[in-house]
Amino acid sequence: MRRAVIVLAALAILLFLGALMGVALGPVKLDMHQVLSAILSGEDRTAHAIVWDLRLPRVAAALVVGACLGLSGCLLQSSTRNPLGDPQLFGLGGGAAVVQALAIAGLIQIGTWALFSLSVAASLIGAGAIALCASRQGVSPARLALVGVSISALAAAAATGIMAEARIFSMQSLNFIGGSFANVGWRTVLPALPFLGLGVLLAAPVVGNLNALSLGDRVAANLGAEPGRTRAASIAAAGILGGIAVAVAGLVGFVGLLVPHLARLLVGHDFRRVLVVSIPLGAAVTLYADQAARLVFMPSEVPAGLVTALLGAPLMIYVARRVL
Amino acid sequence: MLSLEALSFVNHGTTILSSVTAVIPDHSLTCLVGPNGAGKTTLLRILSGELKATSGRLLVGETDTSLLPQRDMAHQVSIVPQDIQPPPYLTVSELVQLGRFRPYGAIWRRLSRQDRVAVNASLARCQLEALARRRVEELSGGEQQRAWLAFGLAQEKRFLLLDETLDGLDVLVKKSSFELLKEVAAEGKGVVLTTHDLDLVTQFADKVILSSGKVVYEGPPNAEWQNRVSPTQIVGWIKST
User: Fold this and answer.
1) Residue of B nearest to A229 (CA)
2) Domain boundaries along the sequence of chain A
3) Which of B74, B89, B107 shows the shortest C-beta gap to A223?
4) Chain A: residue nearest B87 by CA?
5) Complex ipTM, two decimals?
6) Which CATH number fits domain B1-76+190-241: 3.20.20.80, 3.30.750.24, 3.40.47.10, 3.40.50.300?
7) Which residues of chain A have pLDDT under 70?
8) What is the DSSP string of chain B?
9) What pLDDT digit, counting tens, does each position of B148-164 carry?
């Protein structure tokens, strides 16, 4: 427990420093005084606009998306006993990707709230397929991952096809496929918060059961952990969180896979601690990945998803070699 | 007391159990004996609430369990199934601690003093103190069986069901495990064990249920029970195991 508290405190400091970096650094550098005055007062209109309209919402978006992906990955890995659990890899974001592609192509024109709701509803279809597959006895981790990869590939092909058909080859589509926080404003971040809250609320009652699920459904059921209900709630929550992450930033890969494994290294194997740590850890990984994406090639930038892929791909190979 | 009243179980048209009637008392070590495929595991799964009988009744005391969800049965009955794959990272101590798991517990719930006492007592009874920090996956088959036995004991429920949990142990450890189960039963628990070791059943069991899809014999392991098992049957069982 003490270890988890220390890790959480360290993550809080990291998040603060990352957020400061996200607000202060960029093509226009701001010193601490400028940042503080921009946040607290509007005297310097340029600094105020840079901080409030451009950088703070981007930092907030990275935090929200990272938290969603970290929590979603942890819920998937624990509830399906699958070390490859990841919202993108399991196809949970697939439905949301198709909805976003339809929106980018202009084929559906609705407000942000409605669009986000539709994205989450679509991602729950992928979640339903995974829940159905995972509930069968004897489904191997590799087989479950293959089902997810198939759903994911199908959805990505559909999303790309929609944008190609609509002749959308803009930065917007590139950012969506690569996963990016460029041009994200408060109007995108704020509607995502209730969905993050909904995911947390749905998962909260069953989090205590996840450790029992690690012994398999038969033993878990005998311990009173109700594996079916626990898994359904966990995967539904993971679907909501994965869907909203795609709706905000596009396909940011590997965070959901990477973060629970990192959290386990930091706080051990108790899923309750792993889950609590995965939220700020996911936020930190995504925030720093976005800082690298926007600052390394300044003034141009790359999608944050490329940075998370650079971190996540070697880990995926490691996990596949060690566990499968 | 667990009372089985004309329990039948049919799976995809195949009758696994046919009108099984038996009583499993508290304070006793009951051994469920029979050849492979005789439905012993199915019977334990019904007793644990995991499966519902196709017909008949299962009573815990005076309560009919046919409408009880498995979660409620879990308060009364613990089971150690066969062939469980623990996660690769789990240590013996962590496994036994999971025996003190409380469903839907708060995220910050920690083991109480009573839980720790139960965990340490179970580890000690199964002679696992020296192995407590080792990963279950690293242990020999017999040591793993003992770890699962400790997990079952730590739950401190009224009935403990063990599905061939002792069959992988060497002769001496198996004998001491039977003694341990006898001791646990004498403390008030109903212990049900499926096993193929007829010698130790005769030596230690308070009660034997000989099953071959239906109950062939129910009673103490006396001369009568041995007469019910012909030498040909025993040879057949040994071959089938």
Assistant:
1) B104
2) 2-323
3) B74
4) A214
5) 0.85
6) 3.40.50.300
7) 137-141, 169, 319-320, 322-324
8) -EEEEEEEEEETTEEEEEEEEEEE-SSEEEEEE--TTSSHHHHHHHHTTSS--SEEEEEETTEE-TTS-HHHHTTTEEEE-SS----TT-BHHHHHHHTT--TT--TT----HHHHHHHHHHHHHTT-GGGTTSBGGGS-HHHHHHHHHHHHHHT--SEEEEESTTTTS-HHHHHHHHHHHHHHHHTT-EEEEE-S-HHHHHHH-SEEEEESSSEEEEE-SSHHHHHHS-HHHHHHHHHH-
9) 999 999 999 999 999 98
